[in-house]
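stuck on this:

***
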Amino acid sequence: MSFYRNAVWFVKGLQEYTKSGYEAAAKQFNTGDLDVNLSGRSFVITGANSGIGKATAHEIAKRGGIVHLVCRNKERAQEAKEELVEQSKNQNVHVHIVDMSSARQVWEFAESFSKSNSIHVLINNAGCMVNQKELTEEGVEKNFATNTLGTFILTTALIPALKQAQDPRVITVSSGGMLVQKMNVDDLQSEKGTFDGTMAYAQNKRQQVILTERWASQHKEIHFSSMHPGWADTPAVQLSMPDFHAKMKNKLRTESMGADTVVWLAVSAVASNQPSGLFFQDRMAVPTHLPLALSRSSPADEEKLQAILEQLAHKFKP
């Protein structure tokens, strides 16, 4: 089954996830969807100093939004801020230094941020694909810590503040790679068998989609969505998937193409009129499973995922 999923997914990717796939989809876009004034609206964007996060921050800043860059590296974050301010002429760009793989740091940031700032939109963009098994200082597998647990803690900790806002939204940057995985709720930290960073990442991305669906059903006041940016030429792809990047680099999307649907979900009125909890690609809601792939989890397993994350999150709460 894994061979079938991978083969079907790769053919799909060549057609849809590439630059040419974006260009074909973009012919159907309504350019007016992004003609918005974001003055007074506050956006928190994780992993915002490069790649899709930075491209998203740029589009929001130039439309007048208040932009909070949540980044791990202080120097790169400051450089990104200066560049964004210079290009957008928007002074409302702020830097917060947080390692999303540290559950305690994520908790501390979310709690302090909520006390002194409003938030209208959370964009969970930070992610990692570590190809060698690595544990954080808290003893959590690094991919899971960043992509799943960090995203879970930040989102759940900011939900009360989001509920105070008008038209609150949460967008999680997942990946089409999750289509090749059925969630394995009994091995969330990739402890069994040979470690494969790419598959661990795809599992995490599947987990994000399931969490988005569950949050949407549990918190009706907030609009939740997840999305696939396509195969984009970002520093993360170059670093984590060098062979893939070398073979595909002429076909890869630009960072702004990868960010387009994130921006659309974050700012357009059309997006907020879509049902909450869906998975998007190129401004369209798309299926979360390949045909005949047997990748659906049981409701009990999805409930178990959330319960395990709640226990872990509580364990590291300051």
